């Protein structure tokens, strides 16, 4: 497959399978924390970073989108890198063309905000409903000037405030960066959250904890201990931040998934939502969705949002009162989502089902296996294996050598990382033959079975010498 054919394959997959319309738009390259800085010209991934699309091609490809579903612009569903969508020449024409094809579903746009043209606000009502994921990064002028070097802080703040005042046609979420104690101290983050919560039309505030490759890590932290101390400070400063159900929820990411004793706990509730009107509250437990017990928080979310009729959600109040079934009548999947119930991310239900199935296969063969995970999720995975009585598998925290630094997301592990970890002292049992199988996350691979180095799982399997499962 030629280089260009390969890229077009990924673009078509993004459009047809994920309803993501890649623009491969330019980027101002001004974010000091940008993950694109990890990719060099000799890197396999650089070919995807360097590809740019023409307006005519983008317009033509709108026909590949599913007109019944939400369309995503400015997000990456594959290895295709997305920059700032409002730097794409012809973005207004693209948005109008999308709305002609997609009559009712929302158009979701991720933007850093400083390059939104006046023309966008002029057509916002025409192309509504819109969902804007606003990467504000900081709501403090001096801080943003230091961490986003686009010279557009004034414009970003003005555009954010315009969107907050745009009314119900625009659903707005905002994200802030937590980088280190000198650039983004916890007290500044709290001030930003307070200012943002005084704005209207906001659904959620996300705080992103720092994740840097080895190439960047020491630009921000002296060592891993300093990084962990900063994360603890940020987390402790946000304790109780969502206790008031009438304020915009705040979510910290990435964070170790909350096991919560195996309960499906609600993180927060969007003010004015269907759930809020039914007095659903943070820390309430979800016992069932449409009569079925969810396996995880992510499973519960997907069960609600997949409902073809009014979802029936059984809720046990945090105070310990009797469970009640709530029927969210008048439900509109595109508009209502999870009815205003906010969950922290954890393991999908289908992944748990796959692990249960793999466990049965290993039991029948009288073999043992490990689940490759990372420091971030290892304890959570151990709890999941115990909860579902998955006794033939154990969780192993694998180190990311490909990117290094404090990158500890399982989706960024590569097959070479797996090999190196398997040769380490931590996996002596595997080399001794006491463990006969490994479970890799599907997040490591694209739809062609390739990892971030371009290596195919099929080639790895042929040379492995042990059983390999994908969960």
From TrEMBL:
<keyword id="KW-0479">Metal-binding</keyword>
<dbReference type="Pfam" id="PF04055">
    <property type="entry name" value="Radical_SAM"/>
</dbReference>
<protein>
    <recommendedName>
        <fullName>Radical SAM core domain-containing protein</fullName>
    </recommendedName>
</protein>
<dbReference type="InterPro" id="IPR058240">
    <property type="entry name" value="rSAM_sf"/>
</dbReference>
<dbReference type="GO" id="GO:0003824">
    <property type="term" value="F:catalytic activity"/>
</dbReference>
<keyword id="KW-0949">S-adenosyl-L-methionine</keyword>
<dbReference type="GO" id="GO:0051536">
    <property type="term" value="F:iron-sulfur cluster binding"/>
</dbReference>
<dbReference type="InterPro" id="IPR036034">
    <property type="entry name" value="PDZ_sf"/>
</dbReference>
<keyword id="KW-0411">Iron-sulfur</keyword>
<dbReference type="InterPro" id="IPR007197">
    <property type="entry name" value="rSAM"/>
</dbReference>
<keyword id="KW-0408">Iron</keyword>
<dbReference type="GO" id="GO:0046872">
    <property type="term" value="F:metal ion binding"/>
</dbReference>
<dbReference type="InterPro" id="IPR013785">
    <property type="entry name" value="Aldolase_TIM"/>
</dbReference>
<feature type="domain" description="Radical SAM core">
    <location>
        <begin position="13"/>
        <end position="244"/>
    </location>
</feature>
């Amino acid at each position: 497959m030629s280089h260009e054919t390969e890229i077009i394959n990924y673009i078509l997959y993004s459009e047809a399978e994920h309803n993501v319309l890649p623009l491969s738009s330019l980027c101002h390259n001004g974010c000091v924390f940008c993950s694109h800085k990890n990719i060099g010209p000799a890197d396999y991934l650089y070919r995807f970073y360097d590809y740019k699309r023409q307006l005519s091609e983008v317009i033509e490809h709108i026909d590949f989108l599913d007109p019944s579903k939400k369309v995503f612009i400015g997000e990456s569903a594959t290895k295709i890198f997305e920059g700032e969508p409002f730097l794409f020449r012809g973005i207004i024409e693209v948005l109008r063309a999308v709305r002609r094809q997609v009559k009712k579903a929302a158009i979701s746009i991720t933007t850093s905000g400083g390059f939104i043209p006046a023309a966008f606000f002029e057509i916002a009502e025409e192309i509504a409903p819109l969902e804007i994921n606003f990467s504000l990064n900081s709501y403090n002028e001096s801080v943003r000037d230091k961490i986003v070097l686009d010279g557009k802080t004034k414009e970003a703040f003005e555009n954010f405030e315009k969107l907050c005042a745009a009314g119900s046609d625009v659903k707005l979420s905002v994200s802030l960066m937590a980088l280190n104690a000198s650039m983004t101290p916890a007290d500044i983050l709290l001030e930003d959250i307070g200012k943002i919560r005084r704005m209207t039309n906001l659904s959620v505030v996300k705080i992103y904890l720092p994740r840097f490759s080895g190439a960047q890590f020491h630009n921000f932290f002296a060592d891993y201990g300093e990084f962990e101390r900063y994360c603890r400070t940020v987390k402790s400063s946000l304790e109780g931040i969502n206790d008031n159900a009438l304020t915009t929820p705040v979510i910290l990411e990435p964070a170790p998934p909350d096991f919560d004793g195996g309960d499906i706990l609600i993180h927060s509730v969007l003010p004015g939502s269907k759930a809020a009107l039914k007095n659903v509250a943070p820390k309430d437990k979800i016992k069932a969705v449409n009569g079925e017990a969810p396996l995880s928080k992510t499973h519960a979310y997907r069960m609600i949002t997949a409902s073809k009729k009014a979802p029936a959600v059984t809720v046990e109040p945090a105070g310990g009162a009797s469970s009640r079934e709530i029927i969210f009548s008048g439900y509109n999947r595109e508009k209502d989502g999870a009815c205003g119930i906010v969950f922290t991310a954890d393991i999908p239900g289908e992944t748990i089902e796959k692990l249960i199935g793999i466990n049965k296969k290993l039991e029948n063969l009288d073999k043992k296996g490990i689940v490759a995970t990372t420091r971030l999720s290892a304890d959570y995975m151990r709890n999941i294996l115990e909860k579902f009585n998955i006794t033939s598998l154990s969780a192993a925290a694998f180190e990311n050598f490909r990117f290094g630094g404090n990158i500890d997301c399982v989706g960024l592990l590569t097959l070479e990382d797996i090999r190196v970890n398997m040769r380490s002292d931590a996996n002596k049992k595997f080399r001794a033959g006491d463990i006969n199988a490994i479970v890799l996350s599907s997040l490591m691979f694209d739809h062609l079975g390739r990892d971030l180095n371009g290596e195919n799982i099929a080639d790895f399997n042929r040379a492995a010498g042990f059983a390999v499962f994908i969960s």
